[in-house]
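DM from R.C. (forwarded with permission)

"hey, sorry to bug you on a friday — could you get me a structure for this? deadline for the figure draft is monday and I only need the backbone to look sensible"
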Amino acid sequence: MVEKAKWIWLDGNFIPWDEARVHVLTHTLHYGLGVFEGIRAYETADGRTAIFRLSEHIRRLFDSAHIMQIAIPFSRNELEGVCMEILRLNGQKEAYLRPLVFLGAGVMGLNPADSPVRVAIISWLWGAYLGEEGLQRGVRLKTSAFTRHHVRVMMTMSKTVGNYVNSILAKREAIQAGYDEAVLLDNEGYVSEASGENVFIVRDGVLKTHPSTGILPGITRDSILTLASDLGLRSKEERFTLDELYLADEAFLTGTAAEVTPVREVDNRTIGLGRPGPITQKLQSAFFAVVKGQDPRYQKWLAYV
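My reply, with the result:
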């Protein structure tokens, strides 16, 4: 269960957690048209709080809304400021932030034109999404029977509320089969994404991840590609098959919630030596040094509260 905080920001006002309610006729509740973000704030090594790549996340929120033809009634600067302020008011040194843009009660039916656009920002404490053990030892993946959205089926670059039913089906399938997470293939059978993360493999020292076309362009994914380049590692944005994943020396997942989580097994096939490999460990360590404010080269990615 999500641990309650003191305040939630809704439509321009901070209100008590238990008073953040919506009407049962809220359009997004019925039809799934809304957009959201996931952002993390970390307590840095010097005791301050920093939000990781805040401006990039808020920009993606607005990009998602633009794709879905939703006009957000606040500016990017205003929402960035709210993300800062809610951490102060809730007294949170570390937190997960959830901006949500949704269509409120007003009309029913598939044409939402006159529905009011509402905006909420929530912050709560959230540890390792796939578990602390997963971060340390690696997780087990199951290839899902469900195919990832195709670009002519959904807007895959938009973080749209309804898109995640596909992820829920895949995640539930994997969990019920005894795995930690699902990996989904695209409509041509190439490895696409996990249910809520981007996928990387390492073979002969070279990183590979699916091109940004057809997947959600992950901000953590982008960060890892930058870190890999700065560490002198070779990387490719190139489609790869399921058997390439099985044969990888290393594999890992990236995402705001999952951070950098190693993969030790896929479909009962051990990946590499069945534990986090050296490149995964190097990138994971580099990532956490960045978000904790310990690498001055990446201070531009941190918005201090």
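R.C.: lifesaver. The radius of gyration is 19 Å.
me: no worries. Residues 260 and 285 are 9 Å apart (CA to CA).
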